[in-house]
Amino acid sequence: MNNYRQRNGEIWAFENAPKQELQAALAHDHCENADGYDGVVLGLDGGTTSTVCVCMPFLPFSKTLPDPLPVLARAIAGCSNHNSIGESSARDTLEDIIAEVLSKSGSNRSAVRAVCLGISGVNHPNDQERVLSWLRKIFPAHVKLYVQNDAVAALASGTMGRLHGCVLIAGTGCISYGIAEDGKEARASGVGPILGDWGSGYGIAAQALTAVIRAHDGRGPQTMLTDKILKALDLSSPDEVIGWTYADPSWARIAALVPEVVFCAEASDQVANKILLKAVQELALSVKAVVQKLGLCGEDGNGSFPVVMVGGVLKANKSWDIGKEVVKCIQEYFPGAYPVRPQVEPAVGAALLACNFLMKESKENNHS
Amino acid sequence: MNNYRQRNGEIWAFENAPKQELQAALAHDHCENADGYDGVVLGLDGGTTSTVCVCMPFLPFSKTLPDPLPVLARAIAGCSNHNSIGESSARDTLEDIIAEVLSKSGSNRSAVRAVCLGISGVNHPNDQERVLSWLRKIFPAHVKLYVQNDAVAALASGTMGRLHGCVLIAGTGCISYGIAEDGKEARASGVGPILGDWGSGYGIAAQALTAVIRAHDGRGPQTMLTDKILKALDLSSPDEVIGWTYADPSWARIAALVPEVVFCAEASDQVANKILLKAVQELALSVKAVVQKLGLCGEDGNGSFPVVMVGGVLKANKSWDIGKEVVKCIQEYFPGAYPVRPQVEPAVGAALLACNFLMKESKENNHS
Fold first, then answer.
1. Is A366 a residue whose pLDDT tops 70?
2. Of A162, A231, A358, B170, whose CB count within 10 A is highest?
3. Domain named ATPase BadF/BadG/BcrA/BcrD type: which ranges (chains A, B) (predicted)?
4. Among the listed residues A177, A260, A251, A178, the one whose alpha carbon sits nearest the alpha carbon of residue A212
5. Which ipTM score applies to this complex?
6. For residue B176, which phi and psi values (nearest 5 degrees)?
7. Topology (CATH level 3) of domain A40-160+345-366
C-alpha cells in the first residue's frame, strides 16, 4: 500500500498498460462471460482492523452462480473506519486498495460496472454520502456505487448476494442486522462495551476479568479463570490485572482472552460456563429483536429465513460451541431459522451485492 | 496555583515574612495549644478531579478534639493522581498546594510536625515511595511524612483520625476499604468500569444508558429512562446515545446521569428501580467482603464497627435513598455495623491521621 502512496498521484498509472491479463484471467476461471467480457465489479469489506477488496467479473444474477466464484484479484489494507483513523486516512486507504485490486486484476476503472463497499462506522446517511462523494471523484460517471454498513456485506457473504434474512456478527464486538423482502432494515446491539454488548468477544473477556477480580477481593466464587488468565497475560497476581486492563484501551486486546474462557468452561468451571451461557442468551436476543421487528419469521412465527453466522466468537470450538448454542436458542424462538456459515468472505459478499444491485437497477430501468 | 508556578522556584519566598499571623489564628480559634504553640500538621486529599489541602494545629490525640476543629487554612488544586496526569505534574500540584496552604496559614515548613497525604492512584509501596521521595525534598528531615490511598483519608474523616472500621466510597467510581485494630488492611472494588464496578455512579449510569438502547432496539422493556436521559443530554433519538457515549471517554460525564436514574426509580420505573437495587447489592457486597476478610464484626458476627459512607451516590435522595438501602443490606449481614456520615472533609481526616500517627510514633519512642 505504501508504494502507491509514495508514487503520489500516480497510483492509476497502471491503467495505461495493455489489458490482455484480464481476458486471460477471465478465460482461466472458466467464467461464463469470459468470451462476452462484460466488465468487472468490486466488493470491499472495511473493518476497524483491516480492509479487504476483491475484483470479480460481473455475474448476471438471473443465472446460476459459478462454483467456485471467479475472484480476479484480492487486496488487503488496514483500517478504513473513519471513526477510528479520520476521514482523510480512510479515503486514502480506500483509493489505494481500489487501485491495487484493479491493477492486480489487469483491469481498469473504465471496465468497472459497479462497486459495493461494506464499511464499519457507516451508520447514517451522512456517512454514506461522504464515502460516495469520495468514490465519485475516483470513478467515471457510469459506474454504479453502493455504500453500506459492513454487516450488510457479511449478510450477503452468507446469502450469496441476496438481501434477505439476518446476520449475527460476534468478534471483538457484536451486532445483529437484518433485511426483509420489502427492503425494511433493522439492527440490534453493535453499541460497544459501555452500552453492554455482553455477547461480544470483548464482553465475554471483560466479564471473565471481572470474575477474577471478584474472586480475589472476596466478592465472588473462586474460578479456574484466575490461573488461566494470569498465565495467558504473564501476570503473577490478580492485583496486576487492574493495571493490565487500563494500560491500553484496545478492545481487541481484551477480546483475545475468549479462548481462555472457553477452555475453562470446557473444563467445567462454573463461572466461565455462566459467562458463556449469558453471552449465548445475549446474542440470541439480538437476533430475536431483529427478526421480530422485520417479521422475518412470517405471521405464524414458523417461516423460514437464514441467520448468517460470522466472527471468531461463533466459530466452532472443541466442545463448548458458542455458535451452536446460539442457533439452538434462536430456533427455540423461531423453528424456521436456519444457520448459514458463509463459504466466501464478506468482500466477495459485497461484490455479489454489487451484481445484485446492478441487475435490479437495469430491470427497473427496462420496466420504466 | 499558577501564580506559584510562574514565580518559578520562589513558591517558598513567603517563609521569610514575619510569623505573627499564625499565632493570631491559633488564638482566634481558641485552640487548646494556642498558648503553648506546638506546630502544625497538613492533611491532603488528592483525587482525580481535585486536590484539597488543610493546615491544622497539631492536636494531641490523647485529649478530646475541639469542636469545631481549628482549620488554619485550606487550599484547592486540580488532579494529583499520577496515573491521570503523569508524575511531574502530580509532584508540581502537590508542592504548589502545600506552599499555598502554608502561606495562607501564616506558617512555614519548619513549623510543620507531620504531613499526611491520601492520594488516589497510590496502591502499591512503589507509589508510596515515589511520593515520599518528593516530600522529602520539600520538608526538613524532622517532619514526619505519611502517604496513603485516598480511601484511608476518607475513613479517617468519619472516625476523626482513628484507623478502625470500613469506608465505602461511591461517587463516579466506588471502593470499599477497611482496617482492623491490628493494622491489617483490605479493599474490594475500586477497579473501574471495565472490571465491573456496577455500584459506582458510572456503573449505575452506564446500565441506564444500556437500558435505553435495549428498549430502543427491542431487546429490553420500555422505560422512562429513555425520555428522561434524552432530555438531559439534549438528544432527539436513542440512536444518538451511541455517538454521545463514545464522543468523550470521561467517566464523570456518564456518572452525572445518576440523578435521572434516581428520578425514574422514584417515579416507579421498574427498569430504573432494578438498576438501583443491583447497585445497592453490589455496594453492600464490597463492604461485606472487606469486613469478612478483616473480621471487623468479631467472632460471633455481632461486633460493633463503623461504616463510613462517602460520595455523591450515597447522599440522601428524596425517597429512593441508595445509602440508606446499602446500610440496611449491610446490617442484614452484620447487625453491629453502624453508618457514619463524616462531619469533616477527607483532607481534615488526613490531618487528624497525621496527628494520630505522630502520637503513636512518639509513644513508641518513649517506650523503647
1. yes
2. B170
3. 42-354
4. A260
5. 0.86
6. -120, 135
7. Nucleotidyltransferase; domain 5 (3.30.420)
Q: What is the pLDDT of residue B24?
A: 60
What pLDDT, on a 0 to 100 scale, did the predictor assign at position B102? 96
Residue B175: per-residue pLDDT: 94
Give Cα separations from B70 to A210, B28, B114 (angstroms).
44, 9, 16
Q: Is the peptide bond preceding residue A68 cis, with omega within 30 degrees of 0?
A: yes
Identical fold at A40-160+345-366 and A201-340? yes
Interface test with A, best of B82, B83, B175, B194 (most A CBs within 10 A): B194
pTM of the predicted protein model: 0.87
Q: Where does the pLDDT of residue A123 fall: very low under 50, low under 70, confident under 90, or very high at 90 and above? A: confident
Task: Give CATH superfamily name and number for A201-340.
Answer: ATPase, nucleotide binding domain (3.30.420.40)
Q: Which residues of A touch B186 (CB under 8 A)?
A: 217-218
Total residue length of chain A? 368
Across the interface, whether the CB atoms of A219 and B194 are under 8 A apart is answered no
3-state secondary structure of A147: strand
* Helix (H/G/I), strand (E/B), else coil: A183: coil
Give me the residues paired with residue A144 across strands.
Answer: A114
A279 and A203 in contact (C-beta within 8 Å)? Answer: yes
Domain boundaries, chain A: 40-160+345-366, 201-340
Q: Which residues contact A287 (CB under 8 A, 6 or more apart)?
A: A166, A168, A176, A188, A307, A326, A330, A337
DSSP β-bridge partners for residue A309:
A168
CB within 8 Å of A64: residues ≥ 6 apart: none
Report, as an integer, the average pLDDT of A43-59. Answer: 92
Q: What letter would DSSP give residue A337? A: E
Interatomic CA distance for residues A279 and A273, integer angstroms: 10
End-to-end CA distance of chain A: 43
Among A145, A154, A216, smallest CA distance to A187 is for A154
Cβ atoms of A86 and A78 closer than 8 Å: no
Peptide bond before residue A342 is cis, with ω within 30 degrees of 0? no
Three-state secondary structure call for residue A98 = helix
Interface of A with B (CB under 8 A): 123, 186-189, 191-196, 206-207, 209-210, 213-214, 217-219, 239, 241-242, 245-246, 249, 254, 285-286, 288-290, 292-293
